[in-house]
Amino acid sequence: MADDDIERLLREVEATTSGAPAPQGREVSRRQQDAVARRSGEEHGGRFAAAVRAGLIGGAITGVIVFVIFMLTPFVGAWGPGVGAFVGGFLNGFYFKYRGR
Asked: Which of 60, 21, 89 is nearest to 11 (CA)?
């Protein structure tokens, strides 16, 4: 990180903590805007694709954990709770990522 970037960040932090508006620094270049857009995923499917990815990850994690727990318990099936946990985890991950929380 260059010294001017560090100085700019320190000015922004100072302005945020003091309640005063941040002094305007240099103009944001087009290349920096493109880099921010790529990092946020807007160029590769947008919010919907990111929400689907978050839902799949959350659903897979919860589904596997619940499946393993119920697989270890006797006299209880593991597939039903595992699939239910996947669906619940998918819906939670999708909803909260899509809403931007």
From this structure: 21
Q: How many distinct helices (H) and strands (E) make up the chain?
A: 4, 0
In terms of domains, do 96 and 59 share one? yes
pLDDT tens readout for residues 50-101:
899 999 999 999 999 999 999 998 888 889 999 999 999 999 999 988 887 6
CA distance 66 to 97: 22
Threshold 0.90, pTM exceeds? no
pLDDT digits (tens, 9 = 90+) for 11-34: 888 878 876 555 565 566 666 666
What whole-number distance in Å separates Cα of residue 30 and Cα of residue 44?
A: 18
Give me the domain span that covers residue 15.
1-40
- Select from 81, 60, 54, 55 the least CA-distant residue to 69: 81
Pair (58, 85) in one structural domain: yes
Tokens of 10: 């320190």
